[in-house]
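Please, structure for the following, as tokens.
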Amino acid sequence: MFKTIIAPVDGSDPSKHALDKACELAKTLGAELHLVHTPQIDTTMVAVGYSVVELPLTAEKIEEAGKAVMEAALAQATEAGVTPASTHVMAGDPTETILRIAKLNDADLIVMGRRGLGSVASLFLGSVSQKVGHGAECSVLTVH
């Protein structure tokens, strides 16, 4: 049925519930589980004279921000009895990253939380889970 499952994680409670479900499915079906996280980091702005300069994010800052979330997700999966086939911590748009990882791994299921850390912005822009559901070439299970 499902052989490759993608589980996007962001550290939120809905994400943790979705990872539990993804682990349960992976164990039951003997499927590979791939974890993906896209850190959403606030940029730093510095006032210089009359203008404001945005300091660019470095690869190190992105890696540092994503490390704790991914370590927690790995621990949760391991505790559930699943060893993820891969982990991905990547900068960028979460929707695009999830869809790219799903395509690269020939996923047939994405399991994700219905609401994550960006619930206020999603009221205006649409949630990541909605966008993934519209753009995915495979099944998407959203977990409440």
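The beta strands are 4-8, 32-37, 44-48, 51-55, 86-89, 109-113, 139-143. The chain has a mean pLDDT of 86.
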